[in-house]
Structures are given as C-alpha cells and as structure tokens.
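Posting for a labmate who doesn't have an account.
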Amino acid sequence: MNLSVIIIEYFDLNLAVQNSKIIRELLTKDDEIILSSNSVYSKEFTNRNINNFEYFDSVIFNSKNGGFAYAINSAIDKSSNEILIILNSDAKPVVLDKKRIIRVFKDRHVGIIGPKIKDQNNEIQNSRRKFFSLKSVLSRLINPVDSHEYINSSEFYEVDWVIGCCMILRKNSLTHFDERYFLYVEDMDICRKFTENGYKVYADNNIEFEYKGDRKSRQSFFSVYKFIHLKSLMKYFFKWNFNFFN
C-alpha cells in the first residue's frame, strides 16, 4: 500500500508549497502528492510559478471554483495509490507515520481515519464529531461554543465522522465526494456513506496535524458562509432521510 496526498488550494499557494515540502520529506518515492487548485489563476501566473511545484507529482488547476468536493474529486481521478490523505493547504503534518497508516488500513473494515488536530497554540481541535441532527444544529446556532463531542483517552477509537481539513480514506468505489455540497458537510456526508456501506470511521491520535481553521461560518449569523453551511446541512438531511430531531 502507498499514499496519495491531495492538497486542496484556494488562493493559498505559498502555504500549499511549504507544506508539500514537509510532507515530501516524510513519504517514500512510491507515494505521491497532488495539488488541486480552485483559485482559477491566470496562465501567466501559473507559468511564472511553475518552479514552485517541484514537490508535487501532479498539479491540477481546475477551470472553475466548483467547491471543495469538486477539487477533491478531480485529484482522486488522478491519484494512483490505495490510501488517500485529503488536506487543506494550511494543514501541516506533525506526526505522519506511513507504516502506522498502512497497518490500520490492513483491517478491511476501516474506511476513514481522522488524525489528531491541534491549532497553533497546541490546543486540540474538535475534529471528531457525532452526526448532526436539526436539534444539534439549532443548539450550535444558539451556543456556538466548540465543545468536544468525543471525550476519549484512547489512542484509536470509533467515531461518526471526522472533519475534511485532514482525513485519510481508503480509495474504492465509495470515495468520490458529493459535489452538490459546494462547501461544508461534504466530510460528514462521505463518512456517512462509508458507514452505511459497512465501513468504520476512526480517530487516530498516533497521527497528528497542525491546522488553524478560520471557522468563517461562525463569525457572523448573517455571513455568506453561514448561509452556505446551512444550505449544505439541509441537503444532507434530505439526502439521508433524517429524523430531524434525533
């Protein structure tokens, strides 16, 4: 088994390049790093920066900003390895143990794992979560405190879903993300799809990334990001025929 690392970039090319260098030093020659950019840069810009892409095996400049899932899928179609690591451009590896990842995925029931994620102040982020209901969404709107939904001292444990800024997936027929989500919820959706098809999602504290996260959908109740987030949640609820009040 080998790894395909997919970095999703949106007007953050310098950071994507910096993190690709760090990741390259942690991987073997059989692994690959793919950049998928939704920035729709000019041809002049990409030509001027071509020498910055030395650590990438493939660079995809998408013709439109089709959303996060769209960028992931364009890179998945180019990937050649059995395990996918999906990263935001500002997700930096702290502990990335390939042998550990391969050992975990040798269990055929493992579909997705979520690393431990800390911010720049070394605070553990709420990156492992329980599936949302309308009740839980309303609760978060009223009280947007980012409390941890899983309090678990184990190194490796089962969860409902993990956030998409940094997730590791088994590549198979289920792996493509639903592009009807432009932004947000595509990560919860892919975890739901895997669990509905007999796979399990795990948190793994033996793998660690640093990720700041801007949480734009929480900055203002009337922000465009809040609207996009709520729109994606409604798509999710109707797709999975949820009892809204579970």
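Reply:
Got it, the structure tokens are right above this. The chain has seven helices and eleven strands.
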